[in-house]
UniProtKB/TrEMBL annotation:
This is Molybdenum ABC transporter ATP-binding protein. The keyword Glycoprotein does not apply. Residues 1-227 form the ABC transporter domain. Residues 235-283 are annotated as: Disordered. GO terms for molecular function: ATP binding; ATP hydrolysis activity. InterPro entries: AAA+_ATPase, ABC_SmlMolc_Importer, ABC_transporter-like_ATP-bd, P-loop_NTPase. Keywords: ATP-binding, Nucleotide-binding, Transport.
Length: 283
């Protein structure tokens, strides 16, 4: 389990966050712009340093300010994907992924998994935005990370590509069985991907923020459909509940059982097939 309890003093507010993300689950961080979501992700990654707190994965402590423990980002065994495309422009896709991979065969396996093996010899400039982001996720997974951190990786893509990449991210969750923390402003994306949704507002937990924004979204959707003469009573992605301060969203149908993993992701055994139980979150 990826876990953190941190305090970070920022210019306009203080971020105080506690988060737990079990293996094989996606924890979505959402909230208004400038609320501290990306800062929290950077603290997990080791790109920023908390003023106080503890961050770790399983029994491995990455940062403990009281004990003076500080593991640098390069030793945290994480995969990190940002909104901006992270591929090296002068390298082919295959070389980009192989650059981080233990062996070239594993890089090819990832490219095939994401349906972009036919682009192995292409450079990023010749690829679409969705293809580049698939490549960036392959690059992040090629190092066999023990956790995957995503900072709005789909926000610059068109709607159809976003839907396709969301589906592929769920496959990553099920195949690799690692904790995934995903930052997004997109309510539909949060509802589709999140095993738990943590809403942060001005550095604090706002457990009702997602529900308030969802109400606005549903009213807007109803108004748009009414313009087409469609009588729409409103329906969400499933029942919405609260567990330990996090919003949990039902999906309306069972997901398929997990498939075998591509390879060991390091650090303990992978979870057994089946839907992961939702864990409570707090911020």
């Amino acid at each position: 389990m990826l876990h953190a309890r941190v305090v970070k003093r920022l210019p306009h507010f203080t971020l105080e966050a506690e988060i737990r993300c079990p293996a094989g689950c996606v924890t979505v961080l959402t909230g208004p712009s400038g609320s501290g979501k990306s800062t929290l992700l950077r603290l997990l990654a080791g790109l920023d340093d908390p003023d106080e707190g503890v961050i770790g994965l399983g029994d491995t402590v990455w940062r403990d300010t009281a004990a003076g423990v500080r593991l640098p980002a390069r030793r945290r065994d994480i995969g990190l994907v940002f909104q901006e495309y992270s591929l090296f422009p002068h390298m082919t896709l295959a070389r980009n992924v192989a650059y981080a991979a233990v062996d070239a065969g594993y890089a090819d396996e990832l490219l095939a998994l994401f349906g972009i093996i036919h682009l192995a010899g292409a450079k990023p400039a010749a690829m679409s935005g969705g293809e580049r982001q698939r490549g960036a996720i392959c690059q992040a997974l090629a190092r066999r990370p023990r956790a995957l951190l995503l900072d709005e990786p789909f926000s610059a893509l068109d709607a159809a590509t976003r839907l396709a990449l969301r589906a592929q991210l769920l496959k990553v969750r099920d195949r690799f069985g690692i904790p995934i923390v995903h930052v997004t402003h997109d309510l539909a994306e949060a509802a589709q991907l999140g095993d738990a949704i943590v809403s942060i507002n001005q550095g604090r937990l706002d457990p009702d923020w997602f529900d308030r924004q969802l109400d606005v979204h549903l009213r807007e959707q109803g108004a748009l459909l009414a313009r087409r003469g469609i009588d729409w009573a409103g329906s969400g992605p499933g029942p919405i509940g609260k567990e330990g301060g996090a919003t949990t969203v039902g999906r309306g149908e069972e997901r398929p059982a997990r498939k075998p993993t591509l390879a060991s992701t390091g650090g303990g055994s992978l979870p057994t097939p089946g839907r992961p139980r939702r864990e409570d979150q707090a911020v």
